[in-house]
Each structure stands twice: as C-alpha cells, then as structure tokens.
Specification:
Strand content: 15-25%
Largest sheet: 4 strands, mixed
Radius of gyration: 14 Å
Distance between the termini: 34 Å
Strand order of the largest sheet: 3-2-1-4
CATH architecture: Alpha-Beta Complex
Number of strands: 4
Bound molecules: zinc ion
C-alpha cells in the first residue's frame, strides 16, 4: 500500500511540476474561473466546444499541488469527450472524494487515471482543491463565462 501511495505522490508531483495543457487553447469559446480561498487556489479553465464535444481544453492559474495536478489530469481526461461524458466523469470523481470510508474498490477503479487523487477523501480540506478545476469546467460547459468559488 505504501508503494502505491508513493506512486500516486509521484504522479501528482509530475503533473504539478509539468502541468499538461497549461495554455489557452486556440479558438477557445468557453472560460470559467475557479477560486478556493481556503487554500489560495485560482484556476482559469478554457474549452473549445465543437458539436457538443470538448475539442480542446486548457488551464492556467496558481495553486497547490493537488489543485494543479487535478486540473492537469482533467484536461487530459476530458479532451475529445462530449459534455455529458465529461460531467459523468466529474460526478464519479466527486462521489469518491466526498465518499470518505464508504468508497469501494470498484468505484476507485472506475476513476482510471484520476484514482491518484482519490486519497484526498481522507483530507476533507483538500477535497476543494481536488474538485476546483472540475467545478470551473462544469461552469464553462454550462455556456456562459463566469467565475466559480468553492465558498
Ligand atoms: Zn489547494
């Protein structure tokens, strides 16, 4: 188990140090910002929606390792997904990180790459860091450009 934890740490730090899709995508037609005042995280998420599909996704901002790694992983995972598919992934992820001890192995496995962030469910204060980019993406998918806060 501790080896697994170390692996997860390594993945999170890698995404923190080298965030993927850290840019405004060309032709972006959606933008939403997310702020987590408790931790000081601030993230902007852009998307280019074409025919209900996330043709491109990117983000910029400043935040802790958890919020940055989550945003980076998110951009990789939701790219080329439809809006509904992206929302379904967020719902599963949110259920796990808010699930505390109730989460079972099948739920964890359903997260795929995001499983590296599942450990935050033991640290309620960090759940907002882990879901910040996803809340911003959800707002961006709703259509209008806006700002979201975890408060
Ligand atoms: Zn944070």
């Amino acid at each position: 188990m501790s080896e697994l934890r170390e692996l997860y740490q390594t993945v999170i730090l890698d995404h923190y140090k080298k965030p993927r899709n850290y840019r405004k995508p060309e032709g972006a037609n959606r933008l939403a910002e997310g702020r987590n005042p408790l931790c000081g995280d601030h993230i902007k998420v852009w998307a280019r929606i074409e025919d209900d599909r996330l043709a491109d996704v990117g983000f910029e901002g400043s935040g802790c390792a958890i919020s940055t790694a989550s945003a980076s992983l998110m951009t990789e995972i939701v790219k080329a997904k439809t809006r509904d598919e992206a929302r379904a992934i967020f719902t599963r992820f949110r259920d796990v990180v808010l699930g505390g001890q109730q989460v079972d192995g099948a739920e964890l496995a359903s997260l795929g790459k995001l499983e590296v962030l599942a450990g935050v469910r033991e640290f309620p204060a960090r759940v907002k860091c882990a879901t910040l980019a996803w809340h911003a993406l959800e707002a961006a998918l709703e259509g209008s450009s806006e700002s979201v806060s975890t408060e």
